[in-house]
Design brief:
The chain has 370 residues and is α/β, with parallel strands linked by helices. It is 29% helix and 25% strand.
Length: 370
């Protein structure tokens, strides 16, 4: 991919916002298109745990860790307020076989230089006095973990991007990708054709649909996840909390986010109050104050999950100028991905850090559809 002069980014979630900022910082003429308002979909409906803890493959762990480290410098770089918390993560399990797996995982992470330690039940309660953990077969504390409020990060990225000359168009959806002789020439909206040398598909759960506009199949299986948001509560927990089969954390505004573990997720998209109250009832076994907490809203986030659960980042070889940036864990990965994508597009040089995440690994699925 040669150096780009005009770039259109499709999707103003946290990944698209980061890419737009870093492109603008590199001096690229960039237009960001969002069919609704920035961060209204997956980014705003994310648990927003920022971590490398959950990556079991070393190269992917290193990738995520780089991004977390960028996050920690982001407020100083942007010079804007955003909601970032670095109070660590607490994990515990209640079965012997799960305990063995957690100990092995902690040992592996420590061998990679991750700041994590096994802790006792007493240590767990000392760190989070409101927690009632029940049976603890094993527990650990990862001090490197954090959490963010994605809308605040998106606003900061876009404010700085616009100050650098980027154009942000909301309520503007794509209806087509323009191309000629195997090269992107622009995008179509309902009102105009916007010329572009590069189109970045950062449309999250809608990335497959945007790819189809260009005749490109993007192998994904979007996976729904339900979160319950309570009304503001007094300060109860600081860390990101991972008891058996649940996860929860408290936002700066006092609202508690509660969700089910990955293994408990289904394709069920029930957003009823009954389901929300049932989830809070389960969580109240660990945090009794949730038993009477009123539900403010139930959120459904559709995770933009690539087929092999690893990011897809890079140019599509069969259509010059069409670039894909889609991934689960976009909240964790956005700062690093934004930097690397902007670097590749603005310089025309591929980044070795993205070598494992190219769409070519899917073979025929990466070729244009008839």
């Amino acid at each position: 991919m040669g150096m780009a002069q005009r770039v259109v980014v499709a999707g103003a979630g946290i990944v698209g916002a980061a890419i737009t900022y870093y492109l603008a910082r590199a001096g690229v003429q960039v237009i960001l298109l969002e069919r609704e308002q920035p961060g209204r979909k997956t980014s705003n409906n994310s648990f927003a745990w920022v971590n490398a803890f959950s990556r079991t493959e070393r190269s992917y762990y290193d990738f995520a860790r780089r991004s977390v480290e960028i996050y920690k410098q982001l407020p100083d770089e942007l010079g804007l307020e955003m909601e970032l918390h670095w109070h660590g993560g607490l994990h515990w399990v209640d079965r012997p076989e799960a305990a063995a797996a957690l100990r092995a995982r902690v040992q592996e992470l420590r061998s990679w230089g991750h700041s994590v330690e096994m802790i006792s039940r007493d240590d767990l309660v000392a760190r989070e006095p409101h927690i009632r953990p029940g049976t603890v077969a094993a527990a650990c504390y990862s001090s490197f973990d954090g959490a963010v409020h994605p809308p605040s990060v998106i606003r900061a990225f876009l404010q700085r991007a616009q100050a650098l000359g980027a154009e942000v168009r909301t309520d503007t959806g794509l209806i087509g990708i323009e191309s000629r002789q195997g090269r992107v020439t622009g995008v179509r909206t309902s009102t105009e054709i916007i010329p572009a040398d590069v189109v970045v598909n950062a449309a999250g759960a809608d990335a497959a649909a945007v790819g189809a506009m260009a005749g490109i199949r993007i192998p994904m299986f979007p996976k729904p996840g339900t979160l319950v948001l309570t009304v503001p509560l007094p300060p109860l927990v600081r860390a990101v909390i991972y008891p058996p089969n649940l996860h929860l954390r408290q936002q700066a505004d006092g609202r508690m986010l509660v969700g089910e573990s990955w293994s408990m997720d289904t394709e069920d998209t029930d957003l009823s109050l009954t389901r929300a109250q049932g989830l809070l009832a389960r969580a109240s076994a660990f945090l009794p104050e949730l038993a009477q907490a009123p539900v403010e809203t139930v959120k459904l986030g559709v995770r933009p999950m690539p087929q092999d659960e690893r990011p897809i980042i890079g140019p599509v070889p069969t259509l010059a100028g069409f670039y894909v940036a889609v991934m689960h864990s976009g909240v964790t990965l956005a700062p690093l991905v934004g930097q690397l994508v902007a670097q590749e597009i603005s310089t025309g040089q591929p980044s070795p850090l993205l070598a494992n995440y190219r769409i070519e690994r899917f073979g025929v699925l990466a070729t244009p559809t008839p």
